[in-house]
Design a protein that fits this description.
By secondary structure, the protein is an alpha/beta fold. The chain is 45% helix and 18% strand. Strands 8-7-6-9-11-10 form a 6-stranded mixed beta sheet, sandwiched between helices. A 5-stranded mixed beta sheet has the order 3-2-1-4-5, sandwiched between helices. A 3-stranded mixed beta sheet has the order 12-13-14. Strand 2 and strand 3 form a beta hairpin.
Amino acid sequence: MTRTNETLGIIDIGSNSIRLVIYELDQDEAYRIIHEDKYAARLSSVVESDGTILRHSLDKAITILSQFKATCEAYQTKLIRAAATAAIRNASNVLEIIEWLETETGLTIECVSGDREAYYGFLGVTQSIDLADGYVVDIGGGSTEITVFRDRKRLHSISLPIGAVNSHARYGGEDQWTEENANALCNEVTEALRGQDWIREHPGLPLIGLGGTMRTLAKVEQKRTQYSLPVSHHYEISEEAMENIARSLPHLTSAQRKKVPGLAKDRADIIVPGVLILRTVFQIIQGDRYVVSGAGLRDGLLRDYMAGGQPVVPDALKDSIRNFIHFGPPIPEKRLQRIHQDMVTLYTALQGTPPDQADARILYASSMLHMAGKQINYFRYTQHSAYWIMNSSIYGLSHRETILSASAADYHPKKRTPQLLNKHRDILKNSDERHAHRLGSLLRVAEAINRSESISAIEATKENDSLKVQFTCTAEPLLELDGLEEAVKDLKEAWGVTLTHSIQQASKG
């Protein structure tokens, strides 16, 4: 289906919050978020003792849905996809609730099953993080979905009717949690997973957490450690750090929790059951670390809409960068691809081996995004490119890879690069200072080689302290050789090699 920059609205009617996100999609199905909003309706907390939700308890939800619909209409959305999850699907009068919501708002409401919710969460994760294997754990207000995937394929999923809001209603005290109630919740999770043999069959994998609980815990840990990159997506929390959080938070009073740095006041109560559920699942699956995903159900709904035939994104990084290029400044994509290929050629010659997976991602991101800042200000674009890379939560990059990609994009070895590396020593390895200079100098050389269209191909070989590069040219490469004069100085300092070149004419066949 051909599209010309249409907009799509997705409404997630969750058990804790109702969220809206509006995407812009171009004719090639690249996309970007252009609006987002949320309201904490806490539908899980209005379920009656007989399992029903009464009509008057939906007043706020109906008002919010109507306002979200009006926002979508202001953005001229072609389609609004509204999905209701655990609080509504588990209500004993679910059909009546859906009818009330649809009649009052004019929206079509999709009641998402537990398995389907787990599937959408899995799609959101695989399009945003380049991990081949892991457990996806989505803690919502009224349910928790757990999925195991290997080689980016979903193997098993389960949805438990245990979430942060309904667990707080059942076990949470007026203020502090008792040891007895905390244990009761953990035991309920353990019992609900008894008999699910697959849950224990993949030890040592990362737990990838979705939802507000995971994002909040990331912010708390980042504040505690004074983490230098305030981005939660792909942030990693160790088992020990999460244990410390899980041991301390339940025993704080509500007033004390509200003062914990990074913990939003509206989550001060439900963060306790959230972290207890999360830690219990982690212990059962024998995970090796916690990874935060900023993407989730809404991203999965988008992916399902756009690519129902092949919904799993093969490469999260390439897909993310493709989206930017489609909406970014008009830069010839073929030139970016040549710069990337030349970086890989030079790297392989200098290292003696092709780049490993991490370096391959850094080379790709830095080469494809080093001109991104032209959208903000052409004359200082490399600085803006670095800022954009650092703060846009590029899918598929770890935080270390993000910083090294940014330092390569804005490579200035005497000032800005050392400043950037020094600021983020808490994230980088000890060897990364040297590594950053090597990668940045490669990008400068590759940029020079592609300053115009004269050089059609390069070959590179390293002999002792000399890097010999052969240029295949369609015309005399005056601009390229002019640019190389400066670039080779940085290359020599970073790699300890002198670049020599030869030129051969491209065949005219």
